[in-house]
TrEMBL record:
Protein name (Swiss-Prot/TrEMBL): FecR family protein
An MF annotation (GO) of this entry: sigma factor antagonist activity
UniProt KW Aminoacyl-tRNA synthetase keyword: no
Statement: the UniProt record of this protein carries the keyword Transmembrane: yes
Key words of the record: Membrane, Transmembrane, Transmembrane helix
Membrane-spanning intervals of the chain: 92-112
Residue ranges annotated for the FecR protein domain, each copy included: 128-220
Domain Protein FecR C-terminal: 269-339
Gene3D superfamilies assigned to the protein according to its UniProt record, in alphabetical order: 2.60.120.1440, 3.55.50.30
Length: 347
């Protein structure tokens, strides 16, 4: 009966040892492995041979990097601390001699995996042209709709338990896969938007005065992040919109936004609320891939609240012409250029 128990214990140690080398052990299993070795597992000749083989099969050139040294020190301190209560210093060193093979092999695997991780985790970048829309699927199955004249950077894969960091220049609508252990963070020039699982729109073109975050579902935390200094701004829930002035950091929060407007542009429905004509034309440039030439004044003086649903650029301009009381004149050329003239007194 005792031999059967010892055999089971030996097999368990070997099983945990193999898992350790493969990087598949959790904290509890590693604690159990060290404890069993401390209680006599290091005297097991079969396990010792297995450890010896692993040591001999390791690459001859050791990893002397600072990270490897620090990792070894941390593990060594844990081993010494756990063993000190029951063993004298001499006994600890005797124990350490036998377990050194295990530690060295494990550290070699750790350093190798870390280097491989750095090699394989690449930053993927996508840039859209004016008038272009892209639907992207991220490694965690989150969905991103990228608007025109925008750029999105993201890692080739996400690590469970770590933050999912995304970098945006321009506009994008996000449908984030829920994962409470891995917060999803969208970083723009000045804003950091943090979520767990929700859908929201971020508008943050570097050359625009305003940046906005609009929530459709879930909850969003928005913070200012300028030169590494983070300042929390607001928590947003569905229908809320944060409007941030990129030149001075001032912001306001609106709670009356229609949730369906958050991603309306992905459905070719463009909504402008109390927007200057200059701002409307800037948005239309990105959505329709046209170039506006503005002649005259007053493009910044007048505000428009308008919606364009599945209209071509000619119909859009005609609608603006009528809404302006015929003061906005336009001419569409053959090379996707729209010449606009504002006449204060139409004749």
């Amino acid at each position: 009966m005792i031999k059967i128990k010892q055999l089971k214990q030996q097999n368990e140690i070997k099983r945990l040892f193999k898992l350790y080398l493969e990087g598949e052990t959790n904290a509890r299993q590693e604690e159990l492995l060290f404890r069993q070795l401390n209680e006599g597992g290091d005297k097991d000749p079969i396990l010792f041979e297995e450890m010896k083989d692993s040591w001999e099969n390791e690459p001859s050139s050791p990893d002397n990097s600072q990270e490897a040294e620090e990792s070894f020190d941390q593990i060594w301190l844990k081993v010494e601390k756990k063993s000190h209560k029951r063993l004298q210093r001499v006994q600890v060193m005797k124990y350490a001699a036998s377990i050194l093979l295990l530690l060295s092999t494990g550290l070699g695997w750790y350093a190798y995996q870390k280097k491989e991780s750095i090699k394989t985790v690449q930053l993927i970048s996508k840039i859209t042209r004016a008038g272009e829309k892209l639907k992207l699927i991220l490694p965690d199955s989150s969905v991103v709709y990228l608007a025109g004249n925008s750029k999105l950077n993201w890692p080739s894969h996400f690590t469970k338990g770590n933050t999912r960091n995304i970098y945006l220049e321009g506009e994008a609508f996000f449908e984030v896969k829920h994962d409470t252990t891995s917060p999803f963070i969208v970083q723009t020039a000045n804003l950091r938007t943090r979520v767990v699982g929700t859908s929201f729109n971020v508008y943050a073109y570097p050359d625009d005065k305003l940046a906005t975050v609009t929530v459709k579902t879930g909850k969003v935390a928005v913070a200012e992040n300028v030169k590494g200094k983070v300042k929390r701004l607001s928590f947003l829930t569905p229908g809320m919109k944060l409007i941030y002035q990129q030149n001075n950091g001032k912001y306001a929060v609106s709670s009356s936004t229609n949730v369906n407007e958050a991603n309306s542009w992905t459905l070719n429905r463009f909504v402008f609320r109390d927007e200057s004509l200059k701002g409307v034309l800037a948005g239309l440039e990105r959505y329709y891939n046209v170039n506006f030439i503005q002649k005259g004044k007053h493009f910044d003086h007048y505000k428009f609240s308008v919606t364009f649903s599945n209209k071509n650029i000619k119909d859009v301009m005609e609608q603006l012409h009528i809404m302006s009381g015929n003061k906005l004149r336009y001419k569409i050329t053959n090379n996707n250029t729209v010449i606009t003239v504002w006449e204060e007194a139409a004749k």
